[in-house]
């Protein structure tokens, strides 16, 4: 009952719960007194007197606006016979409505942080779906992802390389840093990975058209048909008529029989949308449903009150532009039913499937009807509009000349050396030089370039004999050779720094061979590099946070960085040992060659690349980075130490 | 026509590499050359340069070259000799141009080579003759002006080579060849080579960067051969435009550097690994003092760079907008652990979280007061 006779403030009256559950009203019997209306959404608390007490009453605590003190309203039930029953029913009703009001009106995502910090992802997803699209952004928020250890663990299992990095860094971390801190730091840099993985996991396959998937299979002469339970469920969901038929037929015939008859019947073909020919088997029991009208359950799909003009097909009927011209295409006419049933069936199937998918434009049902701004913008034909006005910000540049006439601020070394010479002398020197060129030109014949460039082919052999005293002449063979060497060196170095596309196609073994290391050493090197980068990252975060409580962490991290340097050295040593081994092999081969043929091949140790030199070259940048980090730490530490001691002296 | 009468006519379009224009900017700062004269005098550099130009002209029939001298206070054209403003050549004789060199007929020298050589030497001579002591008051060179001149010349040549006339598009400029539309215009590719000997270019930071960005847009690689002087901006030029930067360690092998590293044109460079030096100095110069800065402060409206955050009037010098650092200053690192005061546990205080609950990174609020 939603109505009871109660007394409020010593006045008799009736307590009514509205039909929609939104308001609770108390009307006094005496018309002169005022009535009281309470909105259900404002009720914060509801109390009732226990079963055994003599008085039967309920107390409603209302808070109209958050912030004002709550008001208490007490109603005592005065019905002579059924006070307790009324009280029970009213409280039950009120409780139900209050919960409903809370669920729809509140809509704040329950913050997971205060509850158990390990909220399973499934619960989060369920909340998201029920609370509407707004909560979905919160699910992928950084703080949630950081606390979601299950997700993190799954991601680690899915990516073995990341797992290795994580484990290695975990093993080598200093002991004062707890696992929680370490993993927080680790994941703080990789939140985007977590988010992508979470989104990936939450995708699953949607529904599909079941009837078209079921086909009889010919095995050993007999046709078998495999249908799983899920498929049967889907059939019932997609075609409620089949469920009806099933319910009516199965008590009489058994299941297997029903299904085999169903899949051979005309009804099945009609539901699939295929044309029914005369050759199909006639099944008396099932065929009576052929003419069953499906429109009844289809009307509920047409909920759209207002169809926008741009997709309104029935509106085409009023559009008489083709009356005297070409007739509409026979597939586009809205009334044909039998000619191409497959079109109709497939369309309704798609509609049904889509009805179950969460809609992307699930508009708030309370929003105003009609198109909203976004849809309007999407439907607008943009390229027919005029060009937009220029909306750029104008920069008022004050004095342009200032930029181009630079005042020469710093005097660096070259200008100071040049300033020492007097302009006059300089000019005469250069003019003299240029005159040399003109002198080189024999009259009327132009410059003899061969002598001018100074490359004299036959005189170059003298260079070896002259010894120390050779005057460096422009264009001599030695310098040209040195030039070639420099250019080839630059090309080789460029070639080593492959760009990303090439990098992905060459395997690590090839890359390792190019540098001269084995692939095992290269892998260890890569791993060491990665972990060192992690620790550097961590160090800088702690160092620059300015937080005095993390000072201990910073110290420990400095030790770890020093240990990283040692690790790099260890890898370099391993590489060096390998190189020694290769050298030994090379020597042995030369010896054998000598014994076999009597000829001695030249032994060139430089031809064997690799070893600690290669490792150190490759790790040079990160060694520099560690060095600078350590040095900055030391500097800041000394300063702070000095400040502290000064303060203490003053105290 | 092919479709109508079934004949098979097609017009051969050029298949070879497109013609290439090489623009050389020669830094003629007399101070620097006087300094270098013991190792590498200017005369031999010019001679080697001429051989290089000859090689470039020989690599393709339609290749062109232009040489600009970047002097202390101005830039001058070395080749092609600019036509004087007041020239009215009634007899149209090119060799009687005002001040132009008369190249003699030498049977042993290929005529275009001879022309380049005589003009270049003549103009260089003129340039040095007309330099006064007054001109040498600055010790650096006008590289920005030279780059701008080169870029405008390249732009002019590109248009002259393949004029873009809209009316031509419909008629015979586009040739239909077996159903394929081929245009008869073949575009000119160009590049700039700078032989630089002076340093201290930070004073021209803004105009040089403008020229670099313009070259980047037009896809004109800028190659640099640095014989002396500090690098500051020029490495950035090579890096941004895809050119080659070389600082020769043995400058006497100059010809080898020119021929091996700088001769290949744009088509060949696609297939070669370029011998550019590895690291690039990306430092910028501040707009207020033209000092080279490592870490600077940038106006968020017009992106101009300053060396200190305290500007006069706190306004940006270019766009006059008000700037302030605000909350962007990072806290100083605190490395000494604070003394933790022991607090008496008041009854009913609840359990304070022990030392294990640490704030997330970047949070900064301490656990204990």
TrEMBL record, chain A:
One of its GO terms (biological process) is DNA-templated transcription. It is found in: Nucleus. InterPro entries: BSD_dom, BSD_dom_sf, PH-like_dom_sf, Tfb1/GTF2H1, TFIIH_BTF_p62_N. This is BSD domain-containing protein. It holds the Pfam family PH_TFIIH. Keywords: Coiled coil, Nucleus, Repeat, Transcription, Transcription regulation. Residues 558-585 form a coiled coil.
From TrEMBL, chain B:
GO terms for cellular component: transcription factor TFIIH core complex; transcription factor TFIIH holo complex. Belongs to the TFB4 family. Pfam families: Tfb4 (PF03850). GO terms for biological process: nucleotide-excision repair; regulation of DNA-templated transcription. Keywords: DNA damage, DNA repair, Metal-binding, Nucleus, Transcription, Transcription regulation, Zinc, Zinc-finger. It is found in: Nucleus. Component of the general transcription and DNA repair factor IIH (TFIIH) core complex, which is involved in general and transcription-coupled nucleotide excision repair (NER) of damaged DNA and, when complexed to TFIIK, in RNA transcription by RNA polymerase II. In NER, TFIIH acts by opening DNA around the lesion to allow the excision of the damaged oligonucleotide and its replacement by a new DNA fragment. In transcription, TFIIH has an essential role in transcription initiation. Component of the 7-subunit TFIIH core complex composed of XPB/SSL2, XPD/RAD3, SSL1, TFB1, TFB2, TFB4 and TFB5, which is active in NER. The core complex associates with the 3-subunit CTD-kinase module TFIIK composed of CCL1, KIN28 and TFB3 to form the 10-subunit holoenzyme (holo-TFIIH) active in transcription. Residues 339-369 are annotated as: Disordered. GO terms for molecular function: zinc ion binding. This is General transcription and DNA repair factor IIH subunit TFB4. Its main location: nucleus.
